[in-house]
């Protein structure tokens, strides 16, 4: 069963300190200060750089190909994996299916990303075993919400 995420509701919450008050850009409320291990798999270095910037303070793993992503998933068992659907070699879909076949990776939240959203995206992410779909371009608060 895929986790449905209401990004509009999360976007409204992410910009506050949890009590409704504003907080400085790029900071997290105290309850989110735990360090997560995050895998970002995208063939574009600019996307990986954006994740590095947005998610400072977390342990970041980066892959430029699906094959690299799969190796890092198995080796490090990240808390969250952001996988671009369209990469050279193994696609994000294929990496997601492979990860979901490994019981050791059951707790990893998998987020598929693409600039090319299809109308049947909800059905697709369920079929491949992803938890969430993130359409590019995205905003930093969406990333923070998915890691929190």
List its traits:
148 residues, alpha/beta, Rossmann fold, 6 helices, 5 strands
Rg from Cα: 15 Å
Outline the biggest β-sheet. Answer: 5 strands, parallel
As an assembly, this protein is: single chain
Choose one word for the global shape.
globular
Question: What strand line-up does the widest sheet have?
Answer: 2-1-3-4-5
Total strands: the figure is 5
What is the first-to-last residue Cα distance?
Answer: 20 Å
Number of helices: 6
Order of helices and strands: HEHEHEHEHEH
Report the structural category. alpha/beta
Q: Residue share in helices?
A: 25-40%
Let me know the average pLDDT. Answer: 80
CATH class division? Alpha Beta
Strand content: 15-25%
Low-confidence stretches: 1-32
CATH homology-level superfamily: Response regulator
Q: CATH topology, anyone? A: Rossmann fold
Q: Can you walk through the features of this model?
A:
- This protein is of the alpha/beta class.
- It has a single domain, classed as Response regulator (Rossmann fold), CATH 3.40.50.2300.
- 36% of the residues lie in helices and 17% in strands.
- Helix 1 (7-14) packs across helix 6 and helix 3 runs parallel beside helix 4.
- The protein is globular and about 30 Å long.
- Mean pLDDT is 80; it is low at 1-32.
């Amino acid at each position: 069963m895929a986790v449905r995420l209401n990004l509009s509701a999360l976007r409204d919450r992410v910009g506050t300190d949890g009590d409704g008050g504003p907080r400085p850009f790029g900071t997290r409320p105290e309850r989110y200060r735990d360090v997560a291990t995050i895998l970002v798999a995208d063939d574009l270095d600019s996307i990986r750089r954006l994740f590095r910037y947005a998610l400072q303070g977390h342990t970041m793993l980066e892959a430029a190909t699906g094959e690299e992503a799969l190796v890092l998933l198995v080796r490090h068992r990240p808390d969250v994996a952001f996988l671009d659907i369209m990469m050279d070699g193994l696609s994000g879909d294929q990496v997601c299916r492979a990860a979901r076949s490994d019981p050791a990776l059951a707790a990893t939240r998998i987020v598929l990303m693409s600039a090319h959203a299809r109308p049947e995206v909800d059905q697709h992410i369920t079929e491949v075993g992803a938890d969430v779909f993130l359409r590019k371009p995205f905003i930093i608060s969406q990333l923070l919400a998915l890691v929190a």
